Structure formats: structure tokens, C-alpha cells
């Protein structure tokens, strides 16, 4: 039972354009979401997060949007840069902030072409 | 950001042998460490939550006698795959939460992973 889904396994965009990565979840009890970036042979690194009390969080070129009614979140990267090429995972926190665990999506491989 | 290391980065072993993977937090103390498993093109699946000085909590479907976890100190957790079989071949990743970060899931740092291949 995949509670967090990233239905696009890959995405290719041109440098300077916007990258939009999507993530859907099934459990309406999830109230905190995170995006991670992963380069080959490295562990995932935290990128940006959003609480369910917000519908948008922005950090530089990265913005995460949350649509609770649709159980959908998206990560926007603008402008995209070749160094953004990596695998992006979305994750949802299941449980409390102290004892919970992260549920990950399958990841989307982003390729930004120069 | 904080650094989490894993050793070894890759290992090949024969079926039936045991393999130990180490996860270390290098510049912070971690009361909680997590062990994940990732199959190709799939998500990171949580196997167990490891708390320093206590028994690990295993996710449903994960055999605790097969995947032995020891969290002996605030900077080290080990995962031992006992009597490994080819179906155990996977990518194992650990993560650690900064002891001072209570409640902040942004402060969870991942190791680079260990590629296990069982022949």
C-alpha cells in the first residue's frame, strides 16, 4: 500500500525553465511533508518542508505547494539549473513529531539540460 | 549540514553469511537512528527505528531476527543481516536525528547508503 506516490519517474527540463515535481498522498492524517534531493552514491539531503497549516512555503528557488483537499503537493524549482539534476523524494510524516516516521514516495529523477 | 557515514559503502557476500553495516553520526549525537531499504526504482522503506540504549522497533513485515540492530552509543548504530540470501540484496540507508533537534524532522540526516549483493 503506497501511501505516498510520485507518479512521474522522470522529468527533463531546459536550464532556466521551471521544474514541477508532483507528489500525492492517501492518508489525510499526514500533517507534515518534506522534500529530499539525492545525488548518486550519496544519501538524501533535506530540501524544504511544509506543515499542513500552510499551503505554500518558499526558500530561494524552491517552493512547495500543498493542496490538502486534493492530497497533493508539488515542488517548484525556478529557474532550474543543471546542478539540480538529481532524484527528488517527497515524504510525509506519519505519527507525532517525537515518535513518528517518514513515508517516502518512489522518487522522480530530474534532468536539467544546459 | 550534519554528516552521517556508513560503512561499508558496498559489500558482496555469499549466501548464508552475515553482514554488518555501520552507521555513524560524525558531528552530532543521535538518540534515534533509522534504517531504510531501497529496491531499484522504489521508495525508501523504513525497516526499523533504533533508539540508543533500547531495543529497536521494527516495521511490520521486517524480521527482527534476520535484521539485527544495535544502537550502542549516541553516534553508532549497526545493522546485521544474518544468514543473507539473494533476496536480501538491496540498498540500505541509515539516517540519524540530531538529539538537540527534538520535533524537527528537517534535522534528520541520511548516510550515503550501503549496496549489499548476496550471491
Structural summary, described in words:
Chain A contains no helices and eleven strands. Chain A is mostly beta strands. In chain A, the strands form two sheets. In chain A, strands 2, 4, 5, 9, 10 and 11 form a six-stranded mixed beta sheet that branches. A five-stranded antiparallel beta sheet of chain A has the order 1-3-8-7-6, with no helix packed on it. The model of chain A has no long low-confidence stretch (mean pLDDT 93). Chain B has 119 residues and is mostly beta strands. Classes of the chains: A mainly beta (114), B mainly beta (119). At the A-B interface, strand 4, strand 5 and strand 10 of A face strand 5 and strand 10 of B.
Oligomer: heterodimer
Q: How many E strands of chain A? A: 11
Q: Span from first to last CA of chain B?
A: 36 Å
Cα shape of chain A = globular
